[in-house]
Design brief:
By secondary structure, the protein is an all-alpha fold. The protein folds into two domains: 10-38 and 46-209, no CATH class; 218-361, no CATH class. Helix content is 71%, strand content 0%. The chain has 19 helices and no strands. Helix 3 (64-87) packs antiparallel against helix 5 (110-140), helix 5 runs parallel beside helix 7 and helix 13 (265-281) runs antiparallel to helix 18 (334-346). The protein is elongated and about 90 Å long. It starts with a helix and ends in a 14-residue tail after the last helix.
Length: 375
């Protein structure tokens, strides 16, 4: 078995290269393969809607924005995998605060430190697998933003902290009867902490807020969950670019959303239209949805007059003339009217043909250089 012991160091080095090299490899793949295709889809969407904009995909996905996030995640992954690869050889650890925690300075802390190292390894494994899955999923969806790499590194650190504190709370189990079940449960807890560290913290925070809740009715009515079609994954993605509620979404830039998110322009227009209506009517949104008015765009369809609006209000039990007021404001809002026209253009088959022909005539591999002589 001497050949295996000689081969083991090489295998450890290979493992370190594969795990830590995963980060820069995915970033390079994104810029070499995904960005050109994303540019084509962005140009097609804005052409279909008839939007004239100087914004480009590379404004949001420039290489400079990825340097520090990728380096941050790489160093975190490299440091952890190196520590676990060369530190898990069964040798005794010196007593230290990090591994022994509240048991630091006790007569026999070796068992506690071994257990801490054990849970950290499983927490890293869970965090790495989830981060790897998330990065690959976002890469395939043309949505690998810089924040994904920051999130991957922070997930590893947060998972390690949660798993380590849990280990300290449970203490070190040394009895022979429950030793196997205890270690198995601890491994599962640490692994799940690597996959869902934020959800564990959110659960604790939610339980705490039940006693000190000051969330107003308005804050609940403006939640992104009140928009049809938005799931927890959509909500988390929108929060990455600073959209935390319906008001943020209602005032967001359409071209920025198309460039920086993986969602289709039709879907984004529908969400924005719903968000704008929610900002107007708040808790009355469910009543309006019951009669087919989901967004501000529905108020512009059919040239609704005052009599029709009053009949709609009576049908859903609205005692106030809110629908007439909102209709007037929507009709006079040039921004909403422009978005409505964009939506109509997006749904036009003729626009789709024009956009496709324009895309086919463009060379994304050799984009035109900027004229430096221009101001």
């Amino acid at each position: 078995m001497d050949w295996m012991s000689e081969l083991l160091p090489a295998l450890r080095v290979i493992l370190i290269i594969v795990v830590s090299g995963f980060i820069p490899f995915t970033a390079m793949s994104f810029f070499m393969v995904v960005i050109p295709q994303k540019e084509k889809e962005f140009t097609k969407s804005i052409t279909e809607m008839g939007i004239s904009t100087s914004r480009t995909v590379r404004d949001s996905y420039s290489v400079s924005r990825y340097i520090f996030p990728v380096l941050f995640a790489f160093l975190i992954f490299f440091g952890f995998i190196t520590a676990f690869t060369f530190g898990g050889d069964g040798s005794a650890f010196n007593d230290n605060v990090f591994l022994s925690g509240p048991f630091f300075g006790s007569e026999d802390t070796q068992a506690v430190m071994n257990q801490s190292f054990f849970v950290l390894a499983f927490a890293f494994a869970g965090g790495f697998l989830w981060s790897g899955y998330n990065i690959i999923r976002r890469l395939v969806a043309y949505d690998l933003s810089p924040s994904v790499y920051y999130s991957a590194g922070i997930r590893i650190m947060l998972a390690s902290a949660v798993a380590l504190v849990t280990s300290f709370l449970l203490g070190s189990e040394t009895t022979t009867n429950d030793l196997f079940s205890f270690k198995a449960s601890l491994a599962g807890i640490a692994f799940l902490a690597g996959i869902f560290p934020q959800r564990i913290l959110n659960y604790l925070i939610t339980r705490f807020q039940e006693f000190f809740s000051n969330e107003s009715v308005t804050e609940k009515s403006l939640s992104l969950y009140n928009i049809e079609g938005i799931s927890i994954y959509h909500k988390e993605r929108l929060e990455e670019i600073g959209i935390d509620n319906a008001q943020n979404l209602a005032t967001a830039s359409l071209t920025q959303l198309i460039a920086e998110t993986p969602y289709d322009a039709r879907q984004l227009l529908d969400w924005i239209g719903q968000a704008k209506l929610i900002c107007y009517v708040k808790d009355d949104i469910e009543r309006l949805r019951a009669i087919g008015i989901r967004s501000v765009f529905d108020l512009l369809k059919g040239n609704k007059d005052r009599i029709v609006l009053r009949e709609l209000s009576d049908a859903v039990g609205l005692d106030t003339p809110i629908l007439e007021i909102v209709h007037g404001q929507v009709k006079d809002d040039r921004g909403i009217v422009a978005l409505y026209n964009f939506q109509e253009n997006k749904n036009s088959p003729a626009r789709d043909i024009i956009a496709t022909r324009k895309i086919e005539s463009m060379d994304f591999d050799n984009p035109p250089k900027e004229d430096k002589a221009k101001g």
